[in-house]
Design goal:
single chain; 429 residues; mainly alpha; 3-stranded parallel β-sheet; 3-stranded antiparallel β-sheet; 16 helices; 7% strand
Length: 429
């Protein structure tokens, strides 16, 4: 008798245990937006203070259009109120700072022009003409910066009774904010959050440097989402501007969807599928699913804010502070020559040839460069263990071979780090 190959209850399919790898369709997003649970992170609400008025209005319209599918974790509002005034101050002061910096750039540009004009004996009238053009451009930009600052920002203050963001956000969230955890559950959740941070389990371990129980904040948000999704037994869309690897599954530096561990945890707790979107993608998806029109430029403005936040956080998993700490650790351990080579390579578009390395390090000709990158790799690993850079952080320096096996022809730094390294302050200045 032929063996029965009919699939049994214990047999699995392609996505049964790998749901996080299934790419969501337009129908999937429409389903979760119209029948699921949509939970915005605190950063989504705080970024309302960083958007233009029209982008803010469109995002609030999208959130309001969700009706009872919109649900904000209580912890997200805790973080919103904790950070609201500092976010408001940062956004307000950015215009003043930008205008001041622009004035400084204008002065530097004029000095550069004057120096060049003197070197080439440019006629005075031509120098004056070019200086006038420079000043005209910089004045126009400064006026635009000041105009924005004196426009919508003059109506946004710390006073919640006159804050237009609060005025629109309050009615959108009536009855749509989760209750706080009771003391016993809160203490357990904080303990679990801190455990995950130490064990590098998602979400939240990238917040390890935060003081006290602040590192458990992401887990508190996640635990509250799990509880509500379990109660409703539905799919979840988590909207967040947090691009770190303790939330997202990253492939070659790109966010491909939620971490598989989070997808599985939601399923195990009784919820449905887990979806994640950044605010700009959420706005695009919501406009289509909820059938409303976006104002021109809204998505681009929200994407701009997200991009600035990402640029400020990391390039290839590194930021200026982490790189400087790596350099300090190398120098402290007696590997200042590696720092010099990395900086030289960055100046040379990412590559330092072997001859230059021997010259920089003052090595004898018969010295091998084998193992040259080991201190860099080891100390970068320490920064990963401390949670100061993600697991996905790119290499800082690696050997380069032009002719197959044999001695290295030089060493390279990752292209993403070249501008970041070149922007670090010179210790001799």
């Amino acid at each position: 008798m032929a063996k029965d190959t009919t699939a049994g209850a214990d047999n699995r399919g392609l996505f049964d245990d790998f749901g996080a790898f299934r790419t969501p369709t337009a129908e999937d997003f429409t389903a979760v937006l119209t029948r699921g649970l949509v939970a915005p992170d605190a950063n989504v609400l705080l970024n309302l203070y960083r958007y233009t008025e029209q982008a803010r209005g469109d995002l609030l319209r999208a959130l309001g259009g969700l009706e009872n599918r919109l649900w904000v974790p209580h912890q997200a509002l805790v973080e919103f109120w904790r950070n609201r005034e500092s976010t408001l101050s940062d956004a307000r002061s950015s215009g003043t700072q930008a205008a001041a910096e622009m004035a400084g750039h204008a002065e530097q540009a004029v000095r550069t022009l004057r120096t060049w004009a003197n070197r080439v004996a440019l006629p005075e009238e031509e120098t004056d003409r070019l200086r006038g053009q420079l000043n005209e451009v910089f004045d126009e930009v400064q006026e635009a910066i000041v105009k924005v600052g004196e426009g919508e920002w003059q109506n946004i203050t710390q006073d919640t009774s006159t804050d237009p963001v609060i005025a629109k956000l309050e009615p959108a969230l009536v009855g749509r904010v989760g209750a706080p955890l009771n003391r016993e559950d809160y203490d357990k959740a904080v303990a679990e959050g801190m455990r995950r941070v130490e064990k590098r389990l998602p979400p939240g371990y990238m917040d390890k440097p935060k003081d006290g129980v602040g590192a458990a904040g992401d887990y508190l948000v996640w635990e509250q989402i799990l509880r509500e999704a379990t109660r409703r037994q539905c799919d979840v869309l988590f909207v967040t501007a947090d691009g770190k690897e303790d939330w997202w599954r990253k492939e070659q530096g790109f966010n491909r969807g939620p971490r598989p561990e989070l997808t599985e945890e939601l399923r195990t707790r009784g919820g449905g599928r887990l979806f994640m979107l950044t605010p700009n993608r959420f706005l695009e998806v919501a406009a289509s699913a909820l059938d409303f029109s976006l104002q021109e430029g809204s998505v681009e403005d929200i994407e701009r804010v997200e991009r600035i936040g990402t640029d400020e956080e990391t390039q290839g998993g590194w930021n200026a502070g982490a790189l400087q700490e790596l350099f300090d650790r190398l120098t402290y351990e007696g590997y200042g020559d590696r720092v010099a080579v990395i900086k030289y390579a960055a100046e040379m578009d990412g590559v330092a040839d072997a001859a230059s390395i021997y010259d920089i390090c003052k090595y004898p000709e018969d010295r091998s460069l084998r193992g040259f990158t080991k201190p860099v790799t080891r100390l970068a690993g320490q920064l990963r263990d401390l949670g100061k850079i993600p697991e996905s952080a790119v290499y800082v320096m690696k050997a380069k071979y032009d002719a197959g096996p044999g001695p290295a022809s030089g060493f390279s730094v990752h292209p993403l780090l070249v501008p970041l390294i070149n922007d670090l302050p010179d210790e001799n200045e």
